[in-house]
Task: structure prediction
Amino acid sequence: MKICVVGKGGREHALIRSLRESESSPEVFCFPGSEAIHELEGAGKVEAHDLDSLIAWMSENSIDLCVAGEESYLVTGEGLANRCQTAGIPCWGPPFTGAQMEASKEFAKEFMLRHKIPTGGATGCADFEEAQAAIAGNYPTVLKFDGLAAGKGVAVCPDKASADEFLDEVLVQRRFGDGRLLVEEFLEGPEISIFAAVSGPDYLILTPARDYKRIGEGDEGPNTGGMGAVASRQLADPELMKRIDEEIVKPTVAGLEKDELNYVGFLYFGLMLTKDGPKIIEYNCRFGDPECQAVMPLLSGDLATFCLEGAKGNLKPELLSFNEGWSVCCILASAGYPESSRAGDVISGLDAVDDARIYHAGTKKVGDDWATNGGRVLAVVAGGDTREEAVEKAHAEAAKVDFPGSQRRADIGRMHF
Ligand code: AMP
Ligand code: GLY
Result:
């Protein structure tokens, strides 16, 4: 089997490792990939520079399966999955319209309301005045730009001053370009990330995870792409998982079917566990990053065949099994992140890591060394039968790796909720 994975980050590195470890031993290619993905995982390079040339390359090279890692190509042009379908290449990733579950907050919110999936109330607004009227003096309020905004399109505003500032940036100065904005009810409670593998009407819920979005310990400071994650079946007890399945996942998949969205691929549910039960705050049409890096080591079986069969409409849960233990992913980020990032700092200690997996997110080769080349640089992921064991091991292994200015949260996996 020949698989082409689309993406370049730590999530794709983790997916590729698990695809390669599949019992079916596929040959894996990656576009656009990274030096680490090509060199450390042996993933073949793809001679392409855009969606057209990617599709042509996959056809010419008899690719059996395309796996969408990141969301961007799913909503580029006609969409990666749509183009794959036209070319006769099975694709593990949703078509353009299904990917709107992530790309448009208003599309997703209307979907949730139409299918009665528990979520915060929200009003779509076109301009500053409409948004202020929708807030109606209720603070805190949650403001969400209705489009892809590289993780910067959401603001939780405690008061009028902060709300006005965000509204001005988004709706007057148009920082993210044209688009509407949702004013959403503020929800309180711990967050959890739930992942389902979806193939039309069928789905399989994978191991739940929690990510740590803020740069600082104790969830302080600005938001990042994710400073770490913890994954385990035990993050949610069976009763809670049943509720999440019955109230959120099942009606979502039924809604996707009813709306004829032909959803295939990973679907990510960002949930808030409120005192009134689980409520959805966002869908993403892909795996989470860095949750994927924590979840993948818990999975065994044949992920490659699972994705291929799923892409063809035959979901086969029996091809996968899940470790019941814990997995903790520590991110090492570069100096200055998230405001900026510094490249070229040489990374030491990678060879000393012997009881954890390393996934590269933003690195490059400098001579024989790996050096930083992005905000989030590496993930160090370790497992254990208990949360404590996984936490201690992940931090001990991550501490062996260093580079000038490296940032790592020491509390990843430790905070209980
Ligand atoms: P998103 O970009 O949709 O993932 O949102 C970023 C973060 O904003 C989430 O992880 C939550 O912490 C927070 N958030 C989003 N929606 C709400 C909400 N309705 N109430 C409270 N916090 C929210
Ligand atoms: N971990 C959050 C995300 O992937 O969007």
Q: What stands out?
A: The longest helix spans residues 238-258.
